[in-house]
Every structure is written in C-alpha cells, then in structure tokens.
Amino acid sequence: MAIRLIEEADDLELHAALTSRSDLDEMLGADVALDVTHPAASAAIVEFATGAGIPIVVGTSGWSSERITEIAQFVRGHDDAGAVLFVPNFSIGSVLGSAFAALAAPYFDSIEIVEAHHAGKVDSPSGTAVRTAELIGEARGDAGPVAAPHADQRARGQLVSGVPVHSLRLSGVTAEQRVIMGGEGETLTISHSTGSQSAYEQGILLALRRAPEATGVVVGLDALLDLGLPGTVA
C-alpha cells in the first residue's frame, strides 16, 4: 500500500523498495526512508538510516520508550544524524482517540485499555496502546497514578505507565482500541476501530512529506497535527 501511495503521488518518487534480502545500502541517496518491517529488524534499519543522515518514518510496532530514548541519545550526539519519526498508528482517527483519552485522563482515576488486532500481529500490547497509556500517564500529572487494583495478577493486563492494557489477537479483526474510564456513577469509553487499511493512507503520506523537515526524534503522528501532545524526545 505504501509503495502504491508513493507511486500515485505527484510530489513523491520511489527510490528503492527493500526486502529482507536487500542490502541496506540501497536506501542511500533517498530523501526519506519508511520502515514497516518487523520488530526484530527495525532497530538495524533505523540505526543505518540515522547514521547515513536519512530521515526515517518508523511504522514498525514494538519500540519501547527505552529503545526510543537510546535512538534519541544517538541522534543528539551526531549533528548529521537523520531525524526519526516513530508513528505507532497512521490512522488520523486513532491519533485523535488517543488525544481525547489524554484530555479526559485527569478526571478519572480508573482507566484501562483494551486493544484488539488480527491474529498475525506479533507484538503486544500494540504500539498504539503503549502510546495512549504513556499520554494518559503524562496527562494525569498532579492527579497521580491510575488506580489499578490487583495489578500483580496476570489477568489484569500489562501495566504501561501505570495503565492496565489488555491485548486481544483475533481472526476477523483489523484493529480496535477502547479506553475505558470509570468514575463515581459513570463510565466514559473512547473507542476507535479500523475497518480497512485505507484508514492509514492519509497518515502515511503526511509523515513522508513532513519527515524531511523534522529534527531529532518525534513520537506520534499527533505531533504533525499540532494537537499539543508530548511528542518530541529531547
């Protein structure tokens, strides 16, 4: 899909399409790289691109905040390093859903995330759920951590920034996320579902067009939408 979008765009031209058997040198000379591979391969691709001074858009899931911080430290230490834009989800609706969750987070102490993806997705929780939980944690600030009773029990999900995250991997599902917030006498659910991969097209093109202008390490498509959420890694 990404290749088709590039070939159809009047302002973009495909430099090279690499496979798992390609030499990473094939990306040299490109204005921007797009990594949509596998968590086990992504780190080497990002390191090569940044070292070569090529801005890169990373759509591969599985990047933890610790690993992103390591990349940020490398970029800071090299003036000629390419910028890195980590995009947990290219869907505009998904990005807005995470932003709405961050907006509501200070007003509810009970918050949990349920995310579902197709059975073939190899990582869990999803990058989108991790990003959403991190935004919730940051947004709560003085409100303190989310109330997560019995978090030591495995069935309570994985804690990400103090928020329990539950992952489903099911046939028949593309991508879904629900952020459920509980308060006195009420619940608020912020839900987003993806019906087809066409939902990602607008975000992919936006990231590719903006990446050459980016500096440092940026996390989240929301940083390109001026939503006022934390995005740049210092």
UniProtKB/TrEMBL annotation:
Which SUPFAM superfamilies is this protein grouped with?
Glyceraldehyde-3-phosphate dehydrogenase-like, C-terminal domain (SSF55347), NAD(P)-binding Rossmann-fold domains (SSF51735)
Catalytic activity from the UniProt record: (S)-2,3,4,5-tetrahydrodipicolinate + NAD(+) + H2O = (2S,4S)-4-hydroxy-2,3,4,5-tetrahydrodipicolinate + NADH + H(+); (S)-2,3,4,5-tetrahydrodipicolinate + NADP(+) + H2O = (2S,4S)-4-hydroxy-2,3,4,5-tetrahydrodipicolinate + NADPH + H(+)
Which Enzyme Commission number(s) are on file for it? 1.17.1.8
Keyword Cytoplasm annotated: yes
Highest taxon of source? Bacteria
Per UniProt, the keywords (alphabetical) are: Amino-acid biosynthesis, Cytoplasm, Diaminopimelate biosynthesis, Lysine biosynthesis, NAD, NADP, Oxidoreductase
Domain Dihydrodipicolinate reductase N-terminal residue range list:
20-90
One of the GO biological process terms? lysine biosynthetic process via diaminopimelate
Does the record bear Oxidoreductase in its keywords? yes
Cite the annotated pathway: Amino-acid biosynthesis; L-lysine biosynthesis via DAP pathway; (S)-tetrahydrodipicolinate from L-aspartate: step 4/4
GO molecular function terms listed in the Swiss-Prot or TrEMBL record = 4-hydroxy-tetrahydrodipicolinate reductase
Outline the extent of the Dihydrodipicolinate reductase C-terminal domain.
98-225
What InterPro entries does the entry give? DapB_C, DapB_N, DapB_N_CS, DHDPR_bac, NAD(P)-bd_dom_sf
The terms describing its cellular component in GO are: cytosol
Query: Which Pfam families does this entry report, sorted A to Z?
Result: DapB_C, DapB_N
Query: Which PANTHER family does this chain map to?
Result: 4-HYDROXY-TETRAHYDRODIPICOLINATE REDUCTASE 1, CHLOROPLASTIC-RELATED, DIHYDRODIPICOLINATE REDUCTASE
In the record, the note on similarity to other proteins reads: Belongs to the DapB family.
Q: Indicate what this protein is called per its UniProt record.
A: 4-hydroxy-tetrahydrodipicolinate reductase
Native source species? Agromyces bauzanensis
Lineage of producing organism: Bacteria, Bacillati, Actinomycetota, Actinomycetes, Micrococcales
Give the gene symbol. Answer: dapB
